[in-house]
């Protein structure tokens, strides 16, 4: 967490005060402390072994199982104390304020789940077979409230503490939806733990948590794999930007624009993720174009022009063996095709052009137009939109132009800072950009 706004601090303060007041009110008489302590230890162990799902943000732990078991075994106040044990999790990283918020959030959601359990007719204590299946409905209600409170409070704090220039990404939203569903599924382990308790006593958590820890390990492998993907894509992007200094940041912004279009047209989560990679890597083929051609300040020769037109194919050659890119490969290969069939490298037209490529083409041209180039200043967003509309139906797919304009109106666009001027240490800025629809590459055809 960086410097927080006053609203964010007020929000965190309100959650902490609400949790503290509800726990302090009790009642504590009749509370089975041996269960509270044991379940609290399980929460601490689960939190200490939490798996990070996205850099700096979401983590997943199996602590919801003991928290929901405590709803049944010790009631709302006991469950809130068990939830508050997350504070003692031996996890490196979280900022102190983040840890305080997490503690209050878990205490509050466990308390509310406990209240829901009672309100729906649940009975606090060791459940025996006579309580089944009657207990299932109040437990399901408690689990729903637990997950809703948890994710609601968390979404609130993530929203209020997001960086000013960042909208929540479709990928992040998709991941949260999946987390909600998996949390609801894992909540059932809470009831299993409580039910087993009456049969095998304190061994119940072991029987439940061992398979959960195995599941956690599998989730960790997935998260590691995602990190490796990000690193691979990041390294390739860095290589392109080192070679073509004056378009740095372009890949990132094309990726962002493509994701905006993808979300606008309702692409499903995995495809949005794939198009994000496609945007990052669409110009990776520049690695196969001689640097002197990319940085040429004058007109291109026929051969140089041909070399630039080959970059989508070169890009495909470079990344085709990277399995996870999948549909992104078609986007990379065809991002310079035009709807009227006058693009390159294959001259495909209309629907022959893969959908990813048609999306990338719009975001690619838009970012080029709204970035500063040596031969012109950055165009205002409105002017770039007009230009997209002008070429809609000939160069661009009209449906994706419309989708992008709608997303831009809602989310806005952060234009890049003007680049540093050429100095002795830097190459001269090229006087053309192959992505600029308003300034075709100049070719010396003598
Ligand atoms: Fe390109």
Please give a structural write-up.
With 446 residues, this protein is mainly α. The chain has 16 helices and four strands. The protein has helices at 6-24, 33-48, 64-84, 96-119, 136-160, 170-200, 204-243, 250-264, 269-281, 291-294, 302-309, 311-319, 328-334, 355-369, 381-390, 398-411, and strands spanning 51-52, 59-60, 300-301, 443-444. The strands form two sheets. It has a two-stranded antiparallel sheet. α4 (96-119) packs antiparallel against α5 and α6 (170-200) runs antiparallel to α7. The longest helix has 40 residues, at 204-243. The termini are far apart. Fe (ii) ion is lined by residues 282-283, 311, 335-336, 434-435.
Number of helices: 16
- Number of E-type strands: 4
Compute the gyration radius: what is it?
Answer: 27 Å
Main β-sheet, in a few words? 2 strands, antiparallel
**Major sheet: arrangement of strands:** 1-2
How would you summarize this macromolecular structure in one to three sentences?
This protein is mainly alpha-helical and 446 residues long. It has helices spanning 6-24, 33-48, 64-84, 96-119, 136-160, 170-200, 204-243, 250-264, 269-281, 291-294, 302-309, 311-319, 328-334, 355-369, 381-390, 398-411, and strands at residues 51-52, 59-60, 300-301, 443-444. It has 16 helices and 4 strands.
Question: Which terms summarize this structure?
Answer:
446 residues; mainly alpha
Topology (elements, then pairings):
Elements: H1 6-24, H2 33-48, E1 51-52, E2 59-60, H3 64-84, H4 96-119, H5 136-160, H6 170-200, H7 204-243, H8 250-264, H9 269-281, H10 291-294, E3 300-301, H11 302-309, H12 311-319, H13 328-334, H14 355-369, H15 381-390, H16 398-411, E4 443-444
Parallel strand pairs: 3-4
Antiparallel strand pairs: 1-2
Bound molecules: fe (ii) ion.
Fe (ii) ion (FE2) binds at residues 282-283, 311, 335-336, 434-435.
């Amino acid at each position: 967490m960086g410097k927080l706004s006053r609203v964010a601090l007020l929000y965190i303060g309100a959650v902490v005060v609400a949790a503290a007041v509800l726990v302090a009110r009790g009642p504590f008489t009749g509370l089975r402390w041996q269960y509270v302590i044991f379940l609290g230890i399980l929460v601490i162990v689960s939190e200490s072994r939490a798996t990070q799902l996205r850099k700096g943000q979401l983590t997943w732990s199996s602590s919801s199982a003991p928290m929901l078991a405590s709803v049944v075994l010790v009631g709302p106040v006991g469950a809130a104390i068990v939830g508050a044990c997350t504070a003692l999790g031996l996890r490196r990283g979280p900022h102190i304020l983040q840890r305080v918020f997490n503690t209050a959030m878990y205490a509050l959601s466990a308390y509310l789940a406990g209240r829901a359990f009672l309100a729906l007719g649940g009975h606090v204590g060791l459940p025996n077979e006579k309580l089944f299946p009657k207990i299932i409905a109040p437990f399901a209600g408690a689990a729903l409230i637990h997950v809703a409170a948890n994710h609601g409070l968390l979404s609130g704090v993530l929203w209020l503490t997001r960086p000013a220039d960042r909208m929540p990404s479709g990928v992040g939203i998709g991941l949260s939806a999946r987390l909600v569903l998996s949390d609801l599924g894992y909540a059932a382990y809470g009831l299993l733990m409580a039910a087993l308790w009456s049969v095998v006593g304190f061994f119940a958590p072991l029987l439940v948590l061992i398979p959960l820890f195995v599941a956690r390990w599998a989730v960790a492998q997935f998260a590691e794999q995602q990190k490796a993907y990000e690193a691979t894509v990041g390294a390739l992007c860095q290589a392109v930007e080192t070679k073509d200094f004056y378009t740095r940041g372009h890949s990132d912004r094309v990726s962002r624009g493509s994701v905006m279009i993808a979300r606008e047209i309702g692409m499903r989560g995995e495809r949005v993720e794939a198009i994000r990679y496609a945007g990052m890597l669409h110009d990776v083929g520049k690695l196969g174009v001689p640097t002197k051609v990319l940085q040429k300040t004058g007109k291109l020769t026929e051969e140089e022009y041909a070399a630039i037109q080959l970059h989508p194919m070169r890009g495909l050659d470079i990344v085709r063996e990277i399995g996870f890119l999948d549909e992104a490969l078609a986007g990379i290969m065809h991002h310079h095709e035009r709807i009227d069939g006058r693009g390159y490298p294959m001259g495909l037209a209309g629907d022959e052009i893969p959908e990813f490529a048609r999306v990338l083409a719009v975001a690619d041209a838009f970012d080029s137009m709204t970035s500063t180039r040596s031969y012109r200043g950055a165009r205002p967003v409105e002017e770039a939109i007009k230009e997209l509309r002008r070429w809609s139906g000939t160069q661009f797919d009209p449906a994706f132009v419309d989708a992008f304009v709608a997303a831009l109106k809602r989310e806005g666009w952060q234009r890049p800072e003007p680049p540093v001027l050429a100095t002795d240490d830097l190459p001269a800025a090229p006087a053309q950009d192959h992505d600029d629809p308003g300034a075709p590459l100049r070719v010396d055809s003598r």
